[in-house]
Amino acid sequence: MKNIAIAGATGAVGREFLKLMEARDFPINNLKLLASERSVGKKLEFCGEQIAVEELTPKSFQGVDLAFFSAGKGRSREFVRHAVDAGTVVIDNSSAFRMDPDVPLVVPEINPHMAFKHNGIIANPNCSTIQMVVALNPLHKAATINRVVVSTYQSASGAGAKGMRELLKQTQAWVNNEPLEVSAFPAQIAFNLFPHVDVFLKNGYTREEMKMVNETRKIMDAPEMGISATCVRVPVLRAHSEAVWIETERKLTPQEAREILEKAPGIVVKDEPVAGGYPMPWDVDETVETYVGRIREDFSHPRGLAFWVVADQLYKGAALNSIQIAEVLAAG
User: Fold this and answer.
1) Which member of 118, 127, 140, 231 is catalytic?
2) Structure pTM?
3) Which of 305, 311, 322, 1 is closest to 158 using CA atoms?
4) Active-site annotation holds for 82
5) What pLDDT, in 10s, does the model give residues 71-97?
6) Which is nearest to 257 in space by CA: 243, 277, 237, 271?
7) Known catalytic membership, residue 127
């Protein structure tokens, strides 16, 4: 039994931590909920108990064995080192430490051994990266992937609770013929989409797109893998979808790929060429697996394969993956 803290407990991902830890019977001796000063005193329910939120400060981690951070990059940079200095192991959901060579970037279906190589900090990858690598890795082991091209269809939950609220409010305003207010996103999200997730970089890609490139290479230990991403925000509440094209050294038939993916951990294959015979965000909402469908030969390349990947962004893309890392540590 561990003393656990959640930094960012009142946010969208923080609340999913509580739900998933209760559902998975995660071993907890004492649970501390941490957030900004404006949330102090709020109570969140866990296992039938109402727990008051405390302010996140540098002294919050005395006696804490394990801390889940989901309070944003700035908060992680400000407070994670204080937690580590207090003897706490931190699993961080932000991008603050992901590309630090001394910090393991872990997806338990792929590189669980790396969780034990931490110096107090373990990084949880970007949500869109996680579901893609869960699908890529077994295929890479079987046939060596040389190149990946991916287009994402990312839900409003990727921008947190404020993003989900904005989608709902804009939809309601549109129905009532009222003005649509834009604040959480760079453009209207209701009945719209835009290829703009995170900020643009000098190379023409967005930071989200480069996260998928760099994090995939690190997680899969494939520094030479060619990867190109286009990340698109769509009016879906919480599950991300991805259209993925790969080129492999050895040709994989669609049937062989299906068989490989069906045996792979954390994956559900839903791949029938009929209406509804493929994963969709609405169906994947609040599920723990990564779903793969539309598996087919890419006729534009002699060793090409195309497929579709869907996963709940708040579960496997964030809270669940972090909890699975903690479960790996607990299992020793």
Assistant:
1) 127
2) 0.96
3) 311
4) no
5) 999 999 999 999 999 999 999 999 999
6) 271
7) yes
